[in-house]
Amino acid sequence: xxxxxxxxxxxxxxxxxxxxxxxxxxxxxxxxxxxxxxxxxxxxxxxxxxxxxxxxxxxxxxxxxxxxxxxxxxxxxxxxxxxxxxxxxxxxxxxxxxxxxxxxxxxxxxxxxxxxxxxxxxxxxxxxxxxxxxxxxxxxxxxxxxxxxxxxxxxxxxxxxxxxxxxxxxxxxxxxxxxxxxxxxxxxxxxxxxxxxxxxxxxxxxxxxxxxxxxxxxxxxxxxxxxxxxxxxxxxxxxxxxxxxxxxxxxxxxxxxxxxxxxxxxxxxx
Length: 270
Hints:
Layout: H1 3-17, H2 23-35, H3 37-56, H4 64-83, H5 86-94, H6 96-109, H7 121-139, E1 145-146, H8 150-156, E2 177-185, E3 188-197, E4 200-208, E5 219-223, E6 226-233, E7 236-242, H9 246-266
Antiparallel strand pairs: 1-2, 2-3, 3-4, 4-7, 5-6, 6-7
Helix pairs in contact: 1-3, 2-3, 2-7, 4-6
């Protein structure tokens, strides 16, 4: 293996780890990992390192005073334009790109990644879910418990997840249950069910909702070529991630919601 080829593979693994690959790119990496045990071991090492950094090194926010200075520097050209004589504005405009570069350099040099707007909580959740889906595909281990028996999967989550998990069998709808696994979103362990549709899989994650959250119809998002269908029901948030065509993922969501509603009606009230 040449040094350049090794560097290319390293960049490819990091892109997969950060969820930057589209569906075709993820499948390409999946094939490479399956064919190269050494590459698969390196990817597993990177995953462990990433998880350790997230756990042990909390993000730090830059001081407010530094944020204010950088914002003031970024706004300075506009203020000069408002007050400078007309004949000198061309000179100011000429140096605007340089000023912007200096502002960015100061920010990055100070390690001020926290100065800029951070992703929303929803964005972080979606990123974690898609990364989990890709990681499962790449590793070839999409489930921690492999069975189509929902009566085995449901109690398996007991003691691992704070609240009861909704587990339904959708085989008659064309989405057989494959098994389940525990994912971590933020710092919260959550239940993820894996369903099959031909050669495609669907990762359905169930998460706690805020007490004020009302039931909602599914809404679609797309990240790195993967579809995310999210809805709220019964005080829980459900998010399905897949590379299925949108119409089929919609059909899955409808089938799951029907089956989950029927199960809730059949469950004795405490």
